[in-house]
Amino acid sequence: MKIFLTIFFCVALLFSARAQTNNPLIKNPRTSSIDTLEVLAFRRLLHFIADESRPLIRSDINMDSLKRLSESHFLYTNSHTYFNSYDEDNTSYDNFLPTVYHKEGLEGSPFLLTAYVPGLVVNQIDSVIDKTNYLYNYDKVTGNLLLKRDNELPIAVNKEQVKYFCIKEEKGGYIFERVSLISSNEYFQVLYKGPKYSFYKLIKSNFIPSSKTTNGYSTTGNNYDEYKDYYTYYMISHVKDEFAVLELSKKSIRKALSSESVAVEQYFKDHKWTDIDEPYVEHLVEKLNQ
User: Fold this and answer.
1) How far apart are CA 54 and CA 69, in angstroms?
2) Within 13 Å of residue 116, how many CA atoms lie on the same side as its CB?
3) Residues of the chain with pLDDT under 50
4) Does an H or E element contain 166, and which?
5) Cα–Cα–Cα angle for 105, 229, 81, nearest 5°?
6) Which of 50, 78, 122, 281 could tie 164 with a disulfide, CB 3.0–4.6 Å?
7) How far apart, in whole angstroms, are the C-alpha atoms of residue 152 and residue 44?
8) pTM
9) Distance of alpha carbon 30 from alpha carbon 49, whole angstroms
10) Half-sphere exposure of 269 toward its Cβ, with a 13 Å CA cutoff?
């Protein structure tokens, strides 16, 4: 997908796809009488994660035993995963007696969810893949969509085959999109999608090994390995066909939406006691798309 699809100029599509379990996800979508295949597929993802009548099937495998997948595979190709191993080289402060200490449990996870869950995938030709024996998760380290089929080992899905995907939780879920205008090699969480502006979030995680050291008298560093999450926000202007990196601050919002200065300043005034977080920006983008 070399050129960003401009379907939003042809249809009045206002969706909120905030990936929180307590969010109904669909906020009064307004569409034209003729919808493209992509619009129909995206709406199906929204209804899928909002549908609480559909039973949630989970695959509660040992997530910490899975190595981060660095290779990608095609949608129907099986592969193998491997076990993590960590090397430790701990010696006493005088380098004479080896020391042993108890390392605390791993903090965080390379995976978005604690189990593989149902989901839908929209491929590059806007066809929806909906198979009840497919379960999914998202690897925050490699940025891969992981697929688990029946009792087989998980595989990483080839990004070139995926335009959108969603994964479902008990209430709500997450929708991700491969946005070529920003990067065709990443999946971006859809926070709000509209005809004029869309709001996205890139979720990444880094592995930080334990850093505990001692000289015999004092210790420094953490006594645990950790996966630390990092978020980057993006605002897309479909009219200008450009994007801006966004921070959750008034200064950054003003810069990213400089052409909407009057509406933005009025929004700041109307919500001056509200914390500037994801829902705050989502609501602003919803207003600008009206």
Assistant:
1) 30
2) 24
3) 1-33, 64-102
4) strand 162-168
5) 65
6) 122
7) 27
8) 0.75
9) 19
10) 6
For 280, the enclosing helix (H) or strand (E) is: helix 278-289
Tell me which residue has tokens 């379990």. Answer: 21
Do 136 and 157 touch, CB atoms closer than 8 A?
no
Tokens linked to 106: 């791993």
Q: How far apart are CA 31 and CA 289, in angstroms?
A: 13
CB proximity list for 125: less than 8 A, separation 6 or greater: none
Residue 77 CA from chain centroid, whole number = 23
As a whole number of angstroms, the distance between CA 80 and CA 218 comes to: 43
**CB-based contact 189:200 (threshold 8 Å):** yes
The one-letter amino acid at 264: V
Give 63's Cβ-side CA count (13 Å radius): 21
Residues 6+ apart with CB under 8 A from 262: none
Domain locations in the chain?
7-248
Least Cα distance to 72 among 127, 136, 175, 145 occurs for 145
User: What is the secondary structure of 183-228 as a DSSP string?
Assistant: -TTS-EEEEEE-SSEEEEEEEEEEEE----EE-SS-EES-SS-EEE
The answer to whether 285 and 248 have CB atoms below 8 angstroms apart is no
Segment 216-257, tens digit of pLDDT: 565 665 677 789 999 999 999 999 999 999 999 999 999 999
The total number of residues written for the chain in this structure: 290
Tokens standing for residue 115: 């189990």
